[in-house]
Structure formats: C-alpha cells, structure tokens
Amino acid sequence: MEEVNISLVQFLYHLQRTKRSFCAFVSILVLFLLAYNSATIFYTHVPFPAKNSPEPASFEPEIILGKSRKFFSVPSSKKLSFSALYAIKLDRPAGKLKPHFPLLLKNTNLVAYVNTSVVYHPKRRKKNQRGFNSNGSQAKVTPFTVRVKEFFNANPLNSSCKFRFFMTWISSMESFGDRELFTIESLFKTHPNGCLIIVSSSMDSRSGMQILSPFLVKGFKVTAISPDFNYLFNKTAAQAWYNQLMQGNVNPGEVSLGQNLSNLLRLGLLYRFGGIYLDTDILVLKSFKKLRNTIGAQTINPETRNWSRLNNAVMIFDKGHPLLYKFIEEFALTFDGNKWGHNGPYLVSRVVSRITGRPGYNFTVLPPIAFYPVYWNKIGSFFQRPKNETHSKWLIAKLSRIWSQSFTLHLWNKQSRRFEVEEGSIIERIMFDSCVFCNSSSFAST
C-alpha cells in the first residue's frame, strides 16, 4: 500500500511538473508572438502619421501624393513635349495609398544607378573597420554616405562635379512629373558639369532611375539616394529631436510632417556635404559659379529696403557652415508642427535676423530679384499672353530684368499648377531658353 501511495505521489508530482512546463512554454510562445507583432508594427509605421489638412498659400514646392502632374497645360495646338516624353512611362495599377510616410521608408535596393557606367555595390566590411562616428564612438560607414561620396567623385579626372546640387522628394515616384523634370533640364542647361542628387526613398529605385534616364543618356550626372537621417543629424541638436520623433514623443502637428522633415533634411545635406539646395519647382536661369554661402530674400521692406523675409527654397553653403548649424539648432529647439512656414522660411528669417552683425558668420543675403523675382500671388501674370501693346512692353521689360538679374525663378507650384502657358508669356519664353531636349520637342518658338 505504501508503495502504491509513493507511486501515486510521484505520478502527481511529475504531472504537476509537466503542467508547469506546458504553461511556461505557452507563456513564452505568447510573449514571443506579442514581441514579433510589436516589432512589425514599429518597423512599418511612423509614430505620428502626417495629417492631411487644408494648406494656405505655400512657400514650399507642391506635393500631391499618388498623382502624376503634367508640366504645363497649353490650350493651343502646340503641345509641350519636353523631357517627360523621353522618360520611360510605367503603367502601374491604381491602388490604395499605404499609410506610410514615403521619406521614412527603408530602401531595399542594393544598387545605386549613378550613371550608365558607375554602379555601386555594397561590400562587406571588417568588424573593426573605422567609420563615421554617430554616438561618440566608432560607427559603421552607411551605404548612404558611401553612395553620396562615390557619386560626387565618380570621375575625378573627367567631368568632375563642379557643382553639387541637392533636391528632396518626399512624395511618390508616380507624382514626379513634367514640372520636376523640366526644373532638372534648366539645372543642367546652366550647369552641364553639375551633379544632382535627388534625396528620396521613392525615387531611389530602378523605376525612379528610368524616369531620370533621358538625362543619363545625354551624359548628365543625376541619381536618387534614400536619406540616412541618423548620419545627417549626427552631433547636432536635430539628433535628439529626431530620436524623440521616432519614439513617438514629438507632436507633428497639423502641417504635413513630410514638409517639415524636408525643411530639416535640406539643412542636414548642406551641413554634411556642402553644395546647392533647390526646391523642385525652381527654374535655374544662370550659373551659380560666383555665389558662395548665399541665401535669398523673398520680400523687402519698402521703406528701409532691407529684407523682411528670407526663403529656404534656394541655399548655397559650404560644408559645415556655422549658419547651417544654427538653422538646425533652431529647428530642433523651436519645432512647431501647427504653424505653416514656422520651420522653413520663417525659421531662416528668425536665425539670420538674430546673428546679423555677429562675428564668425560669413554669408550673403541676396535681394528678391536674385531667386524670387515674382511673389507667389503674382505668378499667374507670368503665364499670360500680352493683352495689348502696353502689356507687351511690360512683359518684355520684366523678362529682360529677369534674364539680367535673376539666377532662378520660383514657380510656386501650389499657385501656378492651375495656370496654362499662353503663347508669348514670360514662362513660355523662359522655357525656350531653359530646355535641353529642345530639338526633339514639338514646341516651336513664336
């Protein structure tokens, strides 16, 4: 009987242990599934998705998600057929927009299409190899860094990058349309030895490079590279701000988070590499070879003739310039996602007004005629044909002044996209002189 009792106790003991082991196994399995699900959600979603809200008249280039814009609409039988006609058009089925923020999407491509002869392949690096410092200690060199530097130094002995241009594109690849392509035409028409990097996750793809392929065929140097925010913001005030943003501790506000990150991204690019930043609705009219450490005024005080507002759509700065550091610091310390322009044009205006006259800063503020010869609410007049002799004389005088004094023309896309290019207008005449695919175009001069 005693042996039976012992056997029964042993059986119950083993049964209890088995039950505990099974419960422990189930608990571990549940925890693993929860951890995997949380990691998946964090990987694919931004803590604060950008909110779509009505936007006032903008200082920024237009962003329309999921739509392909035509360059300009012409009512006459003469239709424009610029570079977009030579880009490879991809028929993609219409689908729902994913709730991801395009600028933050990770690029999975392992090849950067720099030009027809230069291709970058990431290589394995030794564990102890030194690289760029991101946290005060040795850190790995990122593919972004390598790709940017290899692109700018791809042909050091032949047609080197005399001018380093940056643009940012935060929207979808499909919405990179005729207008954006023509701004690139104007850039290479005035800077044939320039190199352009479009910092964009959506354009950094085989399809994105097919859109840019007409420029590569002509020998121009252009590519698209996905951004590396950690590298660009390293050892600046923006590093902590960006980390807080990714942890969900920054309220993005009502203004598009993409627009605000673009404002910060352009500052980081110039600070790390130096060069020229342009919005994608800027037509380049003449060479920047005589400009250095320059920003432009958008408006001036009619009484004092001093600038009253600057703009960040065109910026030319040396690598590591202290004013850029101040801009980045101001962004991180005063970020407000509910005020339109607060983190862009108004930001550069605030900083420059504070540091003007202080030693240690060397930069130039050019008058509005240099980069912004027409104000945003007057851009429609540049699309109109001459209505009478008086108007014709005004157009000729205005165009003559722009050609002689302006480096760029801001198209103010949010305002001008609804206008048609009329024959004899200022825009039409500028387009004649700014295209690089003119010989293949059906657009004849008047």
TrEMBL record:
Transmembrane segments: 21-43
All copies of domain Alpha 1,4-glycosyltransferase, residue ranges: 317-440
Pfam families reported for this sequence: Gb3_synth, Gly_transf_sug
Family matches, as SUPFAM superfamilies: Nucleotide-diphospho-sugar transferases (SSF53448)
Keywords: Membrane, Transmembrane, Transmembrane helix
InterPro entries reported in the protein's UniProt record: A1-4-GlycosylTfrase_dom, GlycoTrfase_DXD_sugar-bd_CS, Nucleotide-diphossugar_trans, Put_A1-4-GlycosylTfrase_plant
Protein name in the entry: Alpha 1,4-glycosyltransferase domain-containing protein
Lineage, uppermost ranks: Eukaryota, Viridiplantae, Streptophyta, Embryophyta, Tracheophyta
